[in-house]
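Today's session is about reading a structure prediction critically. Students often jump straight to the picture, but the first step is always the sequence itself: look for stretches that repeat, for charged clusters, for runs of hydrophobic residues. Only then move on to the predicted structure, which in these notes is written as discrete structure tokens rather than atom positions. Here is the chain we will use throughout the hour.
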Amino acid sequence: MIAICSSANRGKGQGMELRVVETFLKVAEVGSFSHAAVKLGYSQSAVTMQIKQLEAELGAALFERVPRGVILTDAGRTFAFHAHILMEAASAAAAAVSPASDEGDLTGTLRIGSVESTATSLLPPVLAAFAREHPAAQVVVVTSALEELADKCRRGELDLILTFEQPITLPGFTRETLRDEAVVLAAAPGLVPEADTTLDPEGLAHLPFVLTERGESYRHDFDRALAEHDIVVTPTIETGSTEMLVRLAADGAGVALVPRFSASAALETGSLAQLRTTLELPRMAIQVLYRDQKWVTPVMEAFMRLLRSAIAQNA
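Below is the predicted structure for this chain, in token form.
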């Protein structure tokens, strides 16, 4: 048992056990005492007792009951942020004194957040290679919009974020740009003008489009570029799934605006053809974000090494 004590703040958090902090974080993650108990292998009464003990030590209510479970209070959200840092520090301390082992023996969990386009097109081969090299490590992937992923990362629920955006700066985050990447206009060959034809913005306005939701990253930049020519396009289909947009375009539903890496396979096989246009299309970047001063675990370091290599090879 490991306990954290402080003579400077005796009474609050005195004798706080790491296993109790771990229980708190699991309840916060799943939003339920009973589900947390199952995940941790405890009885529900043991989880309830640990949380009550922690709240008594801190002198604050950490959870509020709602119809479908529990949610964090303001005090709970504040404590969760520091609790994640505490658990990371404990892991770093344990790793620092553990006997050296082969990298193939890496254990632990890596929690990755990713926007949909990079999750479906870039992550699968990297994750497969990582699983082969480090079978004892566990990876959890969460897909969502960047804003939600950043919030999860700030709370310590994610170790890193993989995203496809204009180069961005988020306060409190370290950014690593892996590669600049273009977005392309692609459609079934029957919808694309002859190979030597380059469409101006007015020519694009007469084509059917299938696009991601309005306001999302490169869709926003595309709409803004068209607006400079007093053009607005109304897509026949909108979806947040880049993979679906590629399929829709290949099936002739319209012209898709997607990252080149998402369309590359279909462009190579000929099921999609790229439109040439004088309109300046957005240029984006594949980026990794993680919290400033975060301890980069051996598992995270090994994954990042594979990710950098894969992105560089496919440039």
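Discussion point for the tutorial: Residues 1-11 have pLDDT under 50 and may be disordered.
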